[in-house]
Write a structure and sequence with these properties.
This protein folds into two domains: about 150 residues, Tetratricopeptide repeat domain (Serine Threonine Protein Phosphatase 5, Tetratricopeptide repeat, Alpha Horseshoe), CATH 1.25.40; about 60 residues, Serine Threonine Protein Phosphatase 5, Tetratricopeptide repeat (Alpha Horseshoe), CATH 1.25.40. α1 packs parallel to α3, α9 packs antiparallel against α10 and α10 runs antiparallel to α11. It is mostly helical. About 40% of the residues are buried. The chain contains 13 helices and no strands. The protein is globular, with a radius of gyration of 18 Å.
């Protein structure tokens, strides 16, 4: 009974801070969340939290990121065996990495949030070993750790872990577009001597678009791949498509489109 009351109160609180401009996909196309979370979205609280997480991932609004993080921590306090809350909190902390590392230039805080995000992913995986996107996010984090650690000392270790986790994510759910985006990012950033390939990256980014045509992140990464090959006009079209799908994305508005002017 207490948990039901808590959920009702939490939904009301979430509604008070949620952005009214929630993105709506075509009824013929499944969203990223519908593909990855499936029937879990039928839970009203999970659905609301997911919407908030998607919003703050796009806007990188520090105040809202902190607010959403605290809301999820409250959920964990009441339901500490629910793997989804740890997964959502990992995504929020990963967005704080993007904010502090890429926008504010505070690498120490970014690294702390990255390590926290990894812990949340590991907890989520421990509680549910069949949920694809926790593995995918953990793989992304290990790849990202090389921005903060010595790549000579940690490159092989973290690179191997990232690859293994991403392949596990795809094995568990071959329809998860982020699994292919994560593998594509590994190909994109890795040196050729360590298996890097822009061609393979593009194939994976295109696969993600095929699986979920309405997911803006796929167009961002395909655009980045074309930009790296000097194809600015094609990259611009892809960034514009990403912004059309997710108008709240400050990364696209203030960085990506600026570099292809």
């Amino acid at each position: 009974m207490f948990n039901k009351i808590f959920k009702i109160l939490l939904i009301l609180l979430i509604s008070s801070i949620a952005n009214a401009d929630i993105q709506v996909n075509s009824p013929k196309e499944k969203s990223f969340a519908e593909i990855v979370l499936k029937d879990l979205l039928k839970d009203t609280l999970v659905n609301r939290i997911n919407s908030l997480v998607e919003e703050v991932e796009a806007t990188l609004d520090e105040k809202k990121l902190v607010e959403v993080g605290k809301l999820i921590e409250d959920c964990i306090e009441k339901e500490h065996e629910n793997f989804l809350y740890y997964y959502f909190l990992a995504r929020v902390h990963y967005s704080l990495v993007n904010l502090f590392n890429c926008v504010k230039g505070d690498k120490k805080r970014a690294e702390r949030y990255l390590e926290s995000s990894l812990k949340m992913c590991q907890k989520s995986i421990k509680l549910n070993k069949r949920f694809s996107d926790s593995y995918r996010l953990a793989g992304d984090i290990y790849g990202r750790l090389l921005e903060f650690k010595n790549p000579i000392l940690y490159g092989y270790l973290y690179g191997s872990k990232a690859k293994r986790l991403v392949e596990k994510a795809i094995e568990l759910d071959s329809q998860n577009p982020e699994g292919y985006l994560a593998r594509g990012r590994n190909y994109f950033f890795a040196p050729p001597a360590f298996g890097g390939s822009k061609h393979k990256a593009i194939k994976d980014f295109e696969k993600a678009i095929e699986l979920c045509p309405g997911y803006y992140m796929s167009y961002i990464w395909l655009g980045e791949a074309y930009f790296s090959r000097g194809e600015k006009e094609e990259a611009k079209k892809l960034f514009e498509k990403a912004l059309q799908l997710e108008p709240r994305s400050n990364w696209v508005k203030y960085e990506l489109l600026n570099k292809v002017k």
